[in-house]
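Thread title: Can someone regenerate the structure for this chain?

I was given the following input by a collaborator and told the matching C-alpha cells would be attached. They weren't. Posting the sequence so someone can regenerate them.
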Amino acid sequence: MANLTKDEILILLRPPFTNWSNLTREAEKVVGYPTSFMNLRCLLSDEFANLALYLRKLVGSNHLVMQTAKNVLYGDSKNLQPWGLIILLLSKSVNTQIPTTQAKVIDEQQRALAELIELMRTGHLIHRGIVNVPFAKRSKSTESAIFGNKIAILLGDYLLVTANTMLAGLKNADVLYIVSSGLKDLSEGEFFGDRDEQNMPLPGKPRRTSDDMITFDTTTIAVDDVLGKPRKEWTARTVFNGVSLLGRACQSTMLLAKQHRETQNNAYYFGCHVGLAWQAATELQSLTSDSKDRFCLASAPVLFALEGNPDLYKIIDQAKNDVKDVDYEDLKFNILKTDAVDKTKMLYEDHAKKATSYIESIGHNESVEMIKKLINTF
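Best answer:
Regenerated them for you:
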C-alpha cells in the first residue's frame, strides 16, 4: 500500500459495481481520473485523519452526520450525484481547442475546480447533518447528539476551508466571483420557505394560480411569489439547494477554457438543467421504491400531489413542528393516487431534454456523448 498513489488507493476502496457505477467508471476513463472519489483524495490528510478518529466514536449512533459520511464514502448516487465528473467531461469536450502550450495548466485548474466544488457540496451536506437539541431538552441521553454536532461542524468547516483555499489558488478573480455566487445561493437555500424544528423543509400551502416557469437568475426569485405553486416552488428550492452551484461550476470551467461568453452561459444553463433532471429522478425513485424511509415533503411528487389534492396539506400541517410526526405511509398512498408521479416524470424528461440541447450546442464528441448517457441513465 505504501507504494501506491492516492488515486490507486481510492480505486481499491471502491464499492462493488452496479449499473450506475459501471457507467461512471466508463466516464472516468474518458476524463482520466477516478472522479467518484475526488472528495476522498482531498480527505487523505493528517487533519482529516484526526477528525475521523472522533467520527468513529459515533459509529452505531443514528446521528445524521454518520449517514452523510456513509453517502460520501460509498458514493450513494441518490444523494451525491457525480458533479465533479460532469464538470470534467464538460471541460474535456472543449479542451481539444486549446493550444498545447496552455492545455496542461488549464486542465490542472479544471480538475482543481471539480474537486473544490465537490468539497463545497460535501461540506454543506455535513453541516446539514447538525441536529437541533434545544437547551431545555438537553440531558445525558442527548450527549451523543451534541458531540455529533461538534464533529459535523468541524468536518464541514474543514472541507469548506479546504475548498476555498483551492478556489483562491486558481488565482482567477472571475471564477472566484462566479463560484462564490453559487455558494451564496447554496447557503440561502437553507432559509428558503418554512422549516420544522430540525430545519427540514415544509411545502408552501397550495395556491390555485398559474404556475409558470422561473428563470435561473436567483437574484430575481421572490419566495412569496413561488411558494404554493408546485413547479415554481420546486425549481426555486432545487436551484438554491445546489443546482446553482453546479451551474456556476460548469460556467467557470468554460471560462477557464477561454470559451466565449455564449458558451459560458450555455454551460451554466446546462448545469442547472442537468441538476434539476437528476433531482427529479432522485425524488421519483424515493417515492416509487419499496423503501420505508421518509421522503422530502418539499419534493416534486409531494408538491404536485398537493396541487391535485389540497386536503393533503392537513396531514403535513399537523406535523409542522417535526416532519418525523407525518404519517409517511398514508401520505405516500394518497400521493400515488394523484397524477404526481406522471408530472414528476414529465419534469425529469423536460429538464433532461433541455440539458441535452445545451450540451449539444457546446460540442459533439466522446465527452458530450458520455454526458448524454449520464443524463438519461440516472
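The chain has one domain: 6-376.
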